[in-house]
Amino acid sequence: EEDEVSVLKRERDMASFDVKVYRLQANAYKGELNTQKEILASRTKEMERKSKDLESIQTQVDEKNKMLQAIRRLLPSAEEVVPEKRAQIEAILDLMGNDS
Predict the structure, then answer these.
(1) Which residue in 12, 20, 34, 93 has the most C-beta neighbors within 10 A?
(2) What confidence tens digit (pLDDT) does each residue in 60-92 have?
(3) Predicted confidence band at 99 (pLDDT cuts at 50, 70, 90)?
(4) For the whole model, what pTM was predicted?
(5) What does each C-alpha distance from 51 to 43, 56, 64 come to in angstroms?
């Protein structure tokens, strides 16, 4: 009976050791998961910031394009001005990226 008790104690001790190992592994996995969550949150914030920056830049570009279109509409065509001024009008349109 004493041998049986010592065997059971040894099995209990081994099971207790296994539980401790599993807990350590679980804590390590949990730590890695938390680290990955932090990295993901940081990257998500960075992407949101960059997205807002891009939206702001796109808004500025759209506003400038509207202004250029308005200026193009206000400018007379090269054919409508006296020959001496045609080169100036054409140069202005070229500088503005004459895509009309």
Answers:
(1) 93
(2) 999 999 998 888 888 877 778 787 787 888 888
(3) low
(4) 0.55
(5) 12, 9, 20
